[in-house]
Amino acid sequence: MPKLNEHYQDLKESYLFTEIAHRVAAYTAANPDKKVIRLGIGDVTLPLGNLAIEGLHEGVDAMASAETFKGYGPEQGYDFLREAISAYYARNGVSVDASDIFISDGAKSDTGNISELFDRDNVILIPDPVYPVYVDSNVMSGKQITYLAGNAGNGFLPLPDPSVHADIIYLCSPNNPTGAVYNREQLTAWVNYALANEAVILFDSAYEAFITEPDLPRSIYAIEGAKQCAIEFCSLSKTAGFTGTRCGYTIVPKELVFTASNGAELSLHNMWNRRQCTKFNGTSYIVQKGAAAVFTEEGMKQCHENIRYYQENARIIADTLAKKGIRFYGGVNSPYIWFECPNQMESWEFFDYLLNHAQVVGTPGAGFGENGKNFFRLTSFGNHENTIEAMQRFEKLF
Ligand SMILES: *Cc1c(COP(=O)(O)O)cnc(C)c1O
Prior knowledge:
Layout: H1 16-30, E1 37-38, H2 50-62, H3 79-91, E2 101-104, H4 107-113, E3 124-128, H5 133-140, E4 145-149, E5 168-172, H6 184-197, E6 200-204, E7 230-235, H7 236-240, E8 248-251, E9 257-259, E10 265-267, H8 268-279, H9 285-294, H10 297-323, E11 328-330, E12 336-340, H11 347-358, E13 360-361, E14 363-364, E15 375-379, H12 384-395
Parallel strand pairs: 1-13, 3-4, 3-5, 5-6, 6-7
Antiparallel strand pairs: 2-8, 7-8, 9-10, 11-12, 12-15, 14-15
C-alpha cells in the first residue's frame, strides 16, 4: 500500500465556488422568473485585444510550415518575450534583467510551485485574507504558516512586526480579495524587514495593471534593495484577459543567494531554473507570440481599454457603497471591492440576503481566510449594464 502525503488531509475543504454555484442553482430553480446578476466572478469577460489575437495567429501560422515550425522551446521562455517584458518594466521605470524572467503558464502554478525551493523549517508569513493558493500549497507539503492579519485597523495592509522573525513572506498587492494596495513607504518597510531578517518576499503583482495612482508601486523592484530579497510573480490573466489563454512570468533575480547549512552558496535563480527545466517544458510558442504582442506599447494600450471598462464598473459599485455609507476597500486600483457586511451579518448570511433580496451574487469573505468572515467581495469583471442594474437593486436594500 502506498504511503500517501497525508498533509492533504490538513487542507480545508475548498467549497467556496461550488457552494456559491449550489446556492445560486437552488435559488434559480425556486425562482425561475428572477434575473440573477453575478458580481462574484474572479474571471475576466471581455475578449482579447486584436494585437494579441494577431500575435496568436502568427504563432499558429508558424506551425504550418517546416521553415518556421517550433518544437520544444526554452524552458525559461523565448527571449523575444522575456525582452518584451523587460522593456515593459523599463517603460514603468523599473529595471529588470530579461534573463531573470521565467515565462510560465500562469501565476497560479508558479506561486504554488515556488514553495518547493524552501525547507519545511521556515517561518512563513501569509496574509489573511488572501488568494488561497499560498496557504494550500504550503499545507500540502506540511509547512507551518503564521498568518498576517489584515483588518479594518490596518486597512487590510498588514505591516512587518520588527520583534518577530520571518524567513518567507507572501505579499499580494493590489490584493485579492481586498483590493488594498501597498504604497511605497509600506513596501519599503517590508523590503527593509526582509533584508534585516535575510528573508525572501514572494510578491504577487497579478493586478499591477489596475493601478491608476502613479505614486503606487507596480512592482516590488520599484523599491531599493528588493532584488536582494524578493521574487515577483505576474500574469497576463487579468492584465490582458489571458485567463483561458494562459501565460504568466516569475522574476527571480540572480542577486538572491543564500548560504546553505553546509556552507555552500545557493542561488534561488539557479534552483528555480533547475526546477523548471526538470518539471516544466515551456509555455506554448503560440501563446508566447500572443503575449509578446501584449507587451508592446500598442498592445498594452488595448489592454488598458478593457481595464478601463472594468474600472468604470468598479466606480459604479464604489459610488453605490459610498452612497449607502458603507466603508469599502479597493475599487480604484483594483477590480475588487471589499466591504464589511451590513448589520453585523456574517459573509454567508449576507450572501443569502443579497441573493434573495436583490438577486445579486457576490463572494463571501470567509472563503479567503478567518479575517474575511464578516466581509464581502464584489468584482468589476461583469457586464456594464448588469453592474448598473445590480447596484440599483443594492441601493434599495437595508
Ligand atoms: C488571478 C490571480 C492570479 C493569476 O493566476 P493565473 O494562473 O496566472 O491565471 C495570480 N494571483 C492572484 C492573486 C490572482 O487573483
